[in-house]
Write a structure and sequence with these properties.
Blueprint (H helix, E strand, L loop, with lengths): L7 E5 L2 E4 L4 H15 L4 H9 L5 H20 L9 H8 L12 E2 L8 E2 L8
Antiparallel strand pairs: 1-2, 3-4
Helix pairs in contact: 1-3, 2-3, 3-4
């Protein structure tokens, strides 16, 4: 049984890029990570993290941005964003785990609308 984090092939804007993907797919992921970084509104960022059609890495980055903004607000003694961090964790938590990685789609086994992979993953 595979456990732990999905192996990575590098970093983009601090986000690990998952293995077993074509360079064309990695370009899509980089663009979607940029799209998430451009969002200012915390509710929009959370909707982005929930969007199963977005790359798992971009959704993970969005979740990390939400948590970072929460921490900055707390550290600066400002009002924290109106978002439940446990819900954020539940939304993106399975996206970086080998055990929950979908072999047929770019997402976790919990995602029902994820983008199909060109070539399914094998168990080797």
């Amino acid at each position: 049984m595979k456990t732990g984090k999905i192996p990575s092939v590098g970093l983009y804007r601090g986000q690990r890029l998952h293995s077993a993907q074509s360079e064309a797919r990695l370009q899509v992921e980089r663009a979607e990570i940029d799209e998430g970084f451009a969002l200012v509104d915390i509710a929009e960022l959370f909707r982005f993290a929930q969007n199963e059609r977005k790359a798992p890495e971009a959704r993970l980055a969005a979740g990390a941005l939400i948590k970072a903004r929460w921490k900055l607000a707390t550290d600066d003694r400002r009002a924290r964003p109106n978002i439940d961090l446990e819900l954020v964790d539940a939304t993106v938590g399975a996206l970086d785990g080998e055990y929950w990685r979908s072999p047929t789609h770019y997402g976790s086994l919990f995602d029902h609308d994820a983008v199909p992979r060109e070539t399914p993953l094998t168990d080797d």
